[in-house]
User: What shape does this take?
Amino acid sequence: MLLQAPVHSIEGGFMLNWLIHVQRCFNQTLAHFDFLAPLALRLYLFPVFWFAGTNKLQDFSAVVEWFGNSDWGLGLPFPLLMASLAVCAEVIGSVLLLLGLATRWASIPLMITMLVAALGVHRQNGWQSIHDLMSPWSNAAAPEAIEALNLLQQQLESYPAYQTLQEHGSLVVLNNGIEWAVTYFIMLLALLFLGGGRYVSIDDWIQRKLFQNAKY
Assistant: This one.
């Protein structure tokens, strides 16, 4: 006597196999476009570090003084050397990221600069980079800033052009917390493991050329 499997077991097995097949096809399709993630990270980070580095170059002596002053600056030893390294990391590193050249190596000094920025510059300001009236986090973390922002808004409400000022967004207080520095650090960490990506990075072209000429 032949035993028949329950209908619901057959249907369940078919559905599971179908889901596995769909997932496999989805993963294979995504693999063709995996270069987009590192490319997007590189293109996003390039102007961030390029402008940070070139802005420091415009008044480099003041940057060196800020690096070395312990009263109102970072109080770092060898401020000229440290400022030079920071500028080189940001300017040269941003160009390397844009080109996708030595992407992993370029990410490391930039990650170090972000750690210094987060721990040495922005840590005392907490997490948020911007406080606004609508954020409960802002209200809990920075009551003084929110109180000042409320006062400013009340004063501006009587100003005839107040609505014009609000057209493109609400009033905020720049808090300079570690949020942006940590965000950039995480993006660089991803590039450290992902590399420059296929097709659109010089790293990939070099690697393909090396493998093409390799003798086995």
Notes: DSSP finds ten helices and two strands in the chain.
